Structure prediction request, 143 residues.
Amino acid sequence: MGLIEAASGNSVWKGVDYCDEKKVVSWKKVGESEYSGVVSGSNKKLYDVHIDKAHPRKSTCNCPFAEGRRVVCKHMIALYFTAEPQAKDDFLKEVEKWEAEEEQREQEHYEDLEKYVKSLSKAELQTQLLDALIQLEERRNWW
Prediction:
């Protein structure tokens, strides 16, 4: 499991923003798969960050979210994407690919749904519509 997979979606996207906003003040490679750096937080406070790509849960940051916990925060992601810009590019390309595939799956789903609806007789369609309206009404009453 890598840094990106170990982080929450929120931390990854905020890390992308921090990288783009150049909030990584300084960084250096300190090992085969490790970096240390300083990242400016949203409150302008500077955080000491250490990432270990080989062992993401050993990465550390002294921000309130990550300090004393084995989590990957936005500051760690920002440092990673700053130190390895290709990793950020690869991540964004993968997201674009997934979104395009998801859009295709959704389109196919709607086409299948349309085909199904068109295959129904008038009586079957009326029954299905009535059932759907009843379910919708029950959901409204539930909330």
In short: The helical segments are 3-6, 9-20, 74-83, 85-119, 122-142.
